[in-house]
Write a structure and sequence with these properties.
Elements lengths: L6 H14 L4 H14 L2 H14 L7 H12 L3 H14 L4 H33 L5 H17 L3 H14 L4 H8 L1
Helix pairs in contact: 1-2, 2-3, 3-4, 4-5, 4-6, 5-6, 6-7, 7-8
Length: 179
């Protein structure tokens, strides 16, 4: 149905299958795939996780492939790596998992390069006399974001706290990040 352009009907069939075959991971996986195509990423993540949970026999690497792809696209490298590893436990020769591994390594390298540049900029801005408060705050937040993407939450937390010291009006942002 989906290939013939009947998206609403396909969605209804998949939802019905999750209700009638609730213990089968495939309908959950296919519904997750449907939501990926629709751009409903959070729904897709929930459904792919459900499919992985239901696949007690570890027959399908696809939930982990989808989850790793979504996490990589969102810059969550720590979870990307975790999902790649889980997928490899099921199918260690999977070509898509190899591609994702290479993409992840490339993105982590870019992130580390950006972190290095931002740390240099921070030193430069801090050494200059005058009011560089906004520039320094922006760089500190970017450094925190970089560490967070790499899964180094302790380091991210350290830089986010420094950011808050400079810009105390951002406490609401901090609360949302800590959730």
């Amino acid at each position: 149905l989906l290939k013939s352009g009947k998206k609403d009907q396909a969605k209804a069939v998949l939802i019905r299958r999750t209700r009638t075959d609730g213990a089968d991971p495939l309908p959950w996986l296919k519904l997750g795939e449907f939501y990926i195509l629709e751009g409903a990423i959070q729904k897709s993540v929930s459904l792919c996780r459900k499919a992985a949970e239901l696949d007690a026999e570890n027959r399908f690497p696809e939930p982990y492939i989808y989850l790793a792809s979504i996490m990589l696209e969102n810059g969550d490298y720590r979870n990307t790596e975790m999902y790649i590893e889980r997928g490899r436990e099921i199918d260690h020769d999977n070509a898509r998992l190899r591609e994702l591994t290479n993409e992840l390594k490339g993105m982590q390298d870019v992130c580390r390069d950006q972190l290095s540049e931002n740390l240099s900029n921070l030193e430069e801005f801090s050494a200059v006399e005058g009011d560089n408060k906004e520039k320094i705050a922006g760089v500190i937040k970017e450094i925190g974001d970089g560490y967070r993407a790499l899964g180094e939450t302790g380091k991210a937390d350290e830089f986010y706290r420094k950011y808050l010291d400079i810009k105390p009006g951002t406490r609401e942002w901090w609360r949302s990040w800590k959730r």
